[in-house]
Amino acid sequence: LEEGLDKILAGRARFTVSGGFDDVTAEGVIGFSDMQATADTAKMASMGFDPDQMSRANDMRRRGFVEAQGGGTVLLCRGDVAADLGLPVRGVLAWAGSFSDGVHTSIPAPGLGVVAAAMGGQASPLGQALAQFGLSADDIALVYKHDTSTAANDPNENLIHNTIQKALGRSPGNPLWVVSQKTLTGHAKGGAAAFQTVGMCQALAQAKIAGNRNLESVDPAMRKFEAMTFTDRAVVSSEPLRAGLVTSLGFGHVGAIALIVHPDAFESMLAKESSEAYQSWRDRAEQRLRVAHRFRVDVIKDHKPLFERRSERPIPDQQAELAMLLDPKGTIEVSS
């Protein structure tokens, strides 16, 4: 997300395909087990937990993460590109950044470097990104955390987010809802933040904070993080969820954070610029959504494959392709 955003803001791209994936490998399973980062199946079973209960972020009986595999893809583009092409907008990526922490050991928990996103308070990168949309720290409704269900990471990450909110000037008593998505998906390493990003966009669209699975008793150590608010059941907000944060942390001193704003920010800007342009975009975006919905139904019914492997050129007409590459507004229809 950060690299895609940087390329777009630098004018080196108008559209990027961003994402990540990971597989389960013997080396990874053994390595994380040696670090005591993963849940020990036998020990958890002896405590009375079924496999789907073993990922327990922020719960006092958490004992490590559950391995997973998979990935996700996020399509990023400038707002004018979305408007021109009639693309549905799931969220606005207001800011994304990555940080290093130092030379000390980062095991068993990543460091605190991500806090630097709030360096300077309201004048920080995060603060300025919020202000650009007329928002403040109080408008950050929720955070899709990296939460791994390890003893060390969960309080470490709560400290990070609580500190960021204080630095940005969040009002005391304003809850920051926590979603620990790995309790549902497991920890897919490279794919985890892509899962979280999609989950964040769904939460903003539905004004719904997902309940955290297996959160039976919040660790008392989390009480000192005043802003952090945990729930084991879904919460439907009566107010719009205007913005949220996604974090991805890792061993080796690498951490990343992204600020995602409700898609209404895009729609209101477009409508303010031109009501006709807004209506045209909306009609075409809704048509794309209908086509996508029909496609998903066909996949579920086994009428179509989810992916098709291609070996031939999808654009058989070379001259048409050359013309499209030279035309700033050029498009071309590829063979299906």
What this model shows, in words?
- The protein has eleven helices and ten strands.
- It has helices at residues 2-9, 26-34, 41-46, 79-85, 125-132, 153-168, 182-185, 192-206, 264-273, 275-300, 318-326, and strands at residues 15-22, 70-77, 92-99, 140-144, 176-179, 208-209, 228-229, 235-236, 243-250, 254-261.
- The strands form three sheets. A six-stranded mixed β-sheet has the order 3-10-9-4-5-7, with helices on both faces. A two-stranded antiparallel sheet has the order 1-2.
- Strand 9 and strand 10 (254-261) form a beta hairpin.
- The radius of gyration is 22 Å and the shape is globular.
- The mean pLDDT is 93.
Shape: globular
Structural class by sheet pairing and helices: alpha/beta
- The rounded distance between the terminal residues' Cα atoms is 29 Å
Largest sheet: 6 strands, mixed
User: Which stretches are low in confidence, meaning pLDDT under 50 for 5 or more residues running?
Assistant: none
Q: How many strands in all?
A: 10
Query: What's the gyration radius in Å?
Result: 22 Å
Number of separate helices: 11
Q: Estimate the strand proportion.
A: 15-25%
The pLDDT mean sits at 93
Strand and helix layout:
Elements: H1 2-9, E1 15-22, H2 26-34, H3 41-46, E2 70-77, H4 79-85, E3 92-99, H5 125-132, E4 140-144, H6 153-168, E5 176-179, H7 182-185, H8 192-206, E6 208-209, E7 228-229, E8 235-236, E9 243-250, E10 254-261, H9 264-273, H10 275-300, H11 318-326
Parallel strand pairs: 4-5, 4-9, 5-7
Antiparallel strand pairs: 1-2, 3-10, 6-8, 9-10
